[in-house]
Amino acid sequence: MGEFTMNAAEMLEKYPALKEYKDKIVVIKYGGNAMINDELKDAVLKDVVLLKQLGLKPVLSHGGGPGINKMLEKLEIPVEFIDGLRYTSKEIMEVVEMVLIGQVNSELVGLINKLGGSAVGISGISGDLFHCKKREGAKDLGFVGDITKVNEKAILTLLDAGFIPVVAPVGTDGEGASFNINGDTAAGKLAGALHAEKLLLLTDIEGLCNSIELRDVISYLNVEDVPMLKEKGTIAGGMIPKVDCCVEAIEEGVTNVHIIDGRKPHSIFELVLEGKIGTTIGKDLPSRGIK
Fold first, then answer.
1. Helix ranges, 4-152 (H)
2. Which of 41, 45, 149, 233 is deepest in the core (most CB within 10 A)?
3. Domain ranges of the chain
4. Assigned fold of 26-271
């Protein structure tokens, strides 16, 4: 993958199609094991900086589940997931804020700046970016929030000033309460509000698969087939909020949504240059690869 050692000018000369993305907003959801492995973390953040140097407007929307789990284990606080979402007591919410805002967000901002970028960290509480209400339903999830409004002005202001926004998925009800937001859901809502050209979800798997054991990726998923795949159990567990956020982002005007393997170095650019990896979710073509 030698092309990724090139600078921005060399890449634009070799891949002129990249010029089409100038000034386009790209939201990248970053989480999972790619956040734990230092080599992968370095590769992802270098790609984010290079996207900015190529004239795009990247927004890094991160998770931090592994870090939260590690801290909860250290504090001997039990972890429970319900339909792929973390049950969040008041005690756990304090840990979520501490890890996501105080640790993960600050670290990513520092690393991007070290790599030559100019990043600013922000959580969904800042500027009422993610205005939330407590999630309602048959199963109580504690301080898990549903985003009711995205105040994208803060992000647009940072982008216009030339910064790379780094966003932590924590929201507020505007009355002093904080809420845990699924990282994929937050990224999808943000991409929709920003009318992003692309939403890239970096995951711990090659894409949406018919079978986890066989790793047979569905290359293109038309949103109309999502209910059927949920019924079959192909979309289950943590993949439910991931796919739901993709569908919602498309319905809110995002041009392309992609689930790609964040464990593979430079997967961001493989998508931009090749468009042949992971799962693309949209509504313009028939599904490909469903079994």
1. 8-14, 38-53, 65-74, 90-97, 106-114
2. 45
3. 26-271
4. Carbamate kinase (3.40.1160)
